[in-house]
Amino acid sequence: MNLFSIAWRNLQHRKLASILTMTSMALGVTLVVLVLAVSGLIEESLERNSNVGYNFIVGPKGSPLQLTLNSVFYLSRPVGTLPYSYYLEYQAADGRQRAYQELGGKLADPERPGRYSMFMKSGFAIPICLGDYVGRFRIVGTTTDYLKQLKHGRSADQDYRFARGRNFQEFNEKNGFFEAVVGSIVANELDLRIGSKIYPTHGPEGETHSEGFTIVGILEPTGTPSDRVAFVNIEGFYLLEGHVAPERDADTGLEIRKTQQEPIEKPSHTKKLSIEKREVSAILVKSDPIFSVGMPFQINKSNSAQAVSPLEQIMILREMFFNPLRFALLALTILVCVVSAISILVSIYNSMSERTRDVAIMRALGASRERVLLIILAESVLISVGGGVLGWLLGHGIGKLASPIVEERAGIRVGFFSVNSSIEPWIIPGLIAVGVVAGLLPALMAYRTDVSKSLQG
User: Fold this and answer.
1) Banded pLDDT at 379 (limits 50, 70, 90)
2) Cα separation of 69 and 51, whole Å?
């Protein structure tokens, strides 16, 4: 009979203690697997969002990280606003001139191209406006180019696709400027369908606008923050009450406060808002590849705007917040496994006083000290590995059961055999080492058993 057969028989004689000790180890390994799975999902989400489909974000001066959080992840408060005329500096001469003509602005030099248009021959600049919500979800006012030009995925090579409906139009005879496209999570949680209307609010629980946007498209899940966003026509966004930019002093740029007696002009819903009354929260810019390094330096020279690389800021976010949190959670789970290993040691150690005579009989029947030591170590390894395998199966089983929720929320499918970390393949070898270490002290006790005294006792 081999060592593990004898060790298994010994564990069967102490069923309750063995089962409880295995359960302790199983729970510890389950926790390790779940922590690795969660950290793997966060890592994959960050990788997907690090390739956003554009080179950098242009926004008002302020915190680069905050600008990234509210422009890429739609978190935090917007840093501020930029004049719409600044956005037109990224347009060629004909596009810039056409915009001024449509929106009632005046150009000193109609033939002059935008200041930064020379960097944009094969690129694009997409404005976004933030501030309103539908339920707990952000509303993003933008142009039709957002869902046409931008791509997503790890390599930023996947187009936005519609589960139902279409992209909103610049102007529609039926809905005017008030069309919207919603992400998959927004549609599921708010039970929205094609033809439903959403009414923006100032903040998650703020005042509701009287004008609503008609849902004309619902996006397929992307696993990006776009799943949690409602995209609306920027022209309709500007026409909502309270979205008119305040008048500013031409020299200082400070807001001009009007007295209470002066009437507040409301925008007409039959025509676009004029240029001087428009602002943007940020501009998503993809420049020609050869200018991707030099262009931000030119932008950052201005007193009002900054160019931020979202990839750099996401890496900073990972280093500052995610990695320390992941290591802290992993350290906690390892501590749980260490406690489980101590329980193995205590369980076998306490049983040795009852098994001294059994060990002495084995020795008397011809078993060597080394064989007895290996049998005790085999018991410890069986408890450790048995509990570990059970915990591994339980952890991945929980991950598989949670897969529909994770896929709905994050767009990431979790399979039963998904390996989310390079650490996971080392779990079983690590458990064998834990079993050996935990069983070493009881095994040494068995090794030193005095045969004659134990048989006499």
Assistant:
1) confident
2) 14
| Residue 100, φ and ψ in degrees, nearest 5 | -65, -40
- Mean pLDDT taken over the chain: 80
Q: Report the predicted TM-score, pTM, of the whole model to 2 decimal places.
A: 0.74
Cβ atoms of residues 124 and 87 within 8 Å: no
Which residue type occupies 12? Q
Which residues are registered as beta bridge partners of 229?
138
Q: Are strands 132-134 and 137-142 parallel, antiparallel or unpaired?
A: antiparallel
- Selection from 388, 396, 377 nearest residue 435 by Cα: 377
Q: Which of the pair, 366 or 325, is modelled with greater confidence? A: 325
The span from the CA of 231 to the CA of 129, in Å, is 10
Report which of 219, 209, 244, 437 is spatially closest to residue 342, judged by C-alpha positions.
Answer: 437
Neighbours of 289 (CB within 10 A): 10
C-alpha–C-alpha distance, residues 146 and 71, integer Å: 13
Helix axes 427-447, 369-401, angle to 10 degrees: 150
Record the tokens describing residue 130, joined without a space.
């933030």
Q: Give the bridge partners for 138, in sequence order.
A: 133, 229
**pLDDT tens across 313-335, in order?**
888 888 888 888 778 877 887 78
DSSP for 301-352 reads: TSSSEEEE-HHHHHHHHIIIIIHHHHHHHHHHHHHHHHHHHHHHHHHHHHHH
Q: Which residue has the tokens 């990839």?
A: 311
Distances from the Cα of 217 to the Cα of 48, 206, 313, 443, angstroms: 23, 25, 31, 68
Most confident of 70-79, 103-112, 400-409: 70-79
Q: What is the CA radius of gyration of the chain?
A: 32
58's tokens: 């242009």
CB of 127 closer than 8 Å to CB of 142: yes
User: Given this model, what pLDDT does residue 247 score?
Assistant: 61
User: Which ranges in 73-152 belong to alpha helices (H)?
Assistant: 84-87, 93-102, 145-149
State the Cα angle at 397 between 50 and 318, rounded to 5°: 20
pLDDT at 352 (0 to 100): 65
pLDDT digits over 136-175, tens only? 899 999 999 999 999 887 777 788 999 999 999 999 888 8
DSSP string, 211-276: --EEEEEEEPP-SSGGGGEEEEEHHHHHHSTT-SPPPB-TTT-PBPPPPTTSPPPPPPTTSPPPGG
CA 379 to chain centre: 43
